[in-house]
Design a protein that fits this description.
Blueprint lengths: L28 H12 L1 H6 L3 H11 L4 H16 L10 H35 L3 H40 L2 E5 L6 H6 L3 E3 L20 E3 L20
Antiparallel strand pairs: 1-2, 1-3
Bound molecules: zinc ion (ZN).
């Protein structure tokens, strides 16, 4: 007896929580994708009005409340004023990292917009000045964003190092942990991995944890292969 094929299920991250009473349109999964795409083209959009042009494009496609739209606009203004450092794509590691950084930036924009909106609502509920609450939250967001930028830059640098090694040795590389590495990184040290099909712990200097200083080196002779789930799967701290 054969079982009828079940319809394909969306991946877990595509599932949205049920709509809340107060729906500002910021939970639309497609919004994050659109923000990522618009931010990627923000250099071109800058000529056409930068953050305002991005916001206008988003408002045309998504049902944003006017409060959500204002919060998103203020965060986009901040993010487009501090563009990420230009990094090239020279191989599999930098291609993965570039995609990951773009996704992280878009997720950050949405999360920050929700926090700004939350600060405005809280101030209104308490009868406090809304403008001051929004400015204070935006100042906190600017500091968070600087940390995000630093983390993105560290990942881009580590990816460049891995791709340079791959250019010399090919896609199979060795993992080398530095002094003071975590137990997980020490275990990976001396083992090998494929840059285009990364190990489950991620790529050295990118995946295991924030501040990982592990590097890629020439493959260890007879080195054990680190377990991986296949191409397209990448973990990043
Ligand atoms: Zn490490």
């Amino acid at each position: 007896m054969t079982t009828p094929a079940s319809p394909p299920q969306p991946p877990p991250q595509a599932q949205q929580p049920p709509p809340r009473q107060q729906d500002d349109g910021l939970d639309d999964a497609a919004l994050a994708v659109a923000v990522a795409a618009l931010l990627a083209g923000s250099a071109a959009l800058a000529a056409a009005g930068g953050a305002a042009a991005i916001l206008a494009a988003l408002r045309r496609r998504f049902a944003l409340s006017s409060a959500a739209s204002q919060a998103l606009g203020s965060v986009l203004t901040m993010v487009t004023a501090y563009p990420p450092p230009l990094t090239g794509i020279i191989g599999a590691a930098s291609a993965q990292t570039s995609r990951m950084n773009a996704a992280r930036r878009a997720q950050y924009v949405i999360a920050a917009s929700k926090r700004v909106l939350g600060a405005a609502r809280e101030a209104r509920a308490k009868g406090e000045p809304i403008g001051a609450a929004v400015r204070a939250q935006l100042e906190r967001e600017r500091r968070f964003y600087e940390q995000h930028q630093a983390a993105m830059w560290d990942r881009a640098k580590a990816a460049g190092q891995i791709d340079m090694e791959a250019a010399v040795h090919g896609p199979l590389l060795g993992w080398l942990a530095m002094k003071g590495a975590t137990p997980e990184c020490r275990q990976a040290s001396g083992k090998n991995f494929y840059v285009d099909s990364p190990p489950d712990i991620g790529l050295p200097g990118i995946g295991p944890h924030v501040g990982c200083r592990c590097i890629a080196v020439s493959p260890w002779p007879n080195g054990e292969l680190l377990a991986g789930s296949g191409p397209g799967y990448a973990r990043a701290a």
